[in-house]
């Protein structure tokens, strides 16, 4: 058995696949690549907003670290319009650059609807999906819920 002593080199990652046989392997549906994030396939429609509002749940555990980073991201991206308390009185509203920024207290929102709006934007608010990572978006959602709870007291 001479081939036991001298192995044949195979380049499994070659352009044409193993031994020149092309292989088109696609990931299994519903899987997430290492270091990747789940695909967000809820459409940017009224129905999609309602679906997200009713079904999306925050996958992150509520921790001090998540809330602290959520606050930091909120301060960077949201405070200028929504205000530091979530009351819709941010700097740009006070400077009369924008009007009608919602107060979280007056909105029928859930963690799913907040995430959906971060992904696609709503009204004058643009999408923040390119500025915030998957984890940061959910951290902002946690922090917005804290602000809303404080406003409802």
UniProtKB/TrEMBL annotation:
Is Chloroplast one of the keywords?
A: no
Q: Extract the GO molecular function terms from the UniProt entry.
A: electron transfer activity; heme binding; metal ion binding
Against SUPFAM superfamilies, the record matches this protein to: Cytochrome c
Q: Which PROSITE patterns match?
A: CYTC (PS51007)
UniProt keyword annotations, A-Z: Heme, Iron, Metal-binding
Q: Record's Pfam families? A: Cytochrome_CBB3
* Every Cytochrome c domain range: 65-148
| Name this polypeptide is given | Cytochrome c
Species this chain originates from: Polaribacter aestuariivivens
């Amino acid at each position: 058995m001479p081939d036991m002593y001298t192995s044949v080199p195979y380049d499994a990652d070659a352009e044409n696949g193993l031994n020149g046989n092309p292989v088109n392997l696609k990931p299994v549906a519903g899987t997430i690549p290492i270091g990747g994030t789940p695909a967000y396939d809820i459409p940017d429609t009224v129905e999609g907003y309602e679906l997200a509002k009713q079904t999306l749940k925050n996958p992150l555990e509520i921790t001090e670290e998540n809330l602290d980073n959520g606050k930091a991201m909120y301060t960077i991206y949201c405070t200028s319009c929504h205000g530091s308390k979530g009351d819709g009185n941010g700097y740009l509203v006070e400077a009369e650059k924008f009007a009608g920024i919602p107060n979280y207290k007056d909105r029928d929102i859930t963690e799913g609807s907040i995430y959906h709006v971060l992904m696609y934007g709503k009204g004058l608010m643009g999408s923040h999906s390119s500025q915030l990572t998957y984890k940061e978006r959910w951290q902002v959602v946690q922090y917005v819920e804290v602000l809303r709870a404080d406003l409802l007291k």
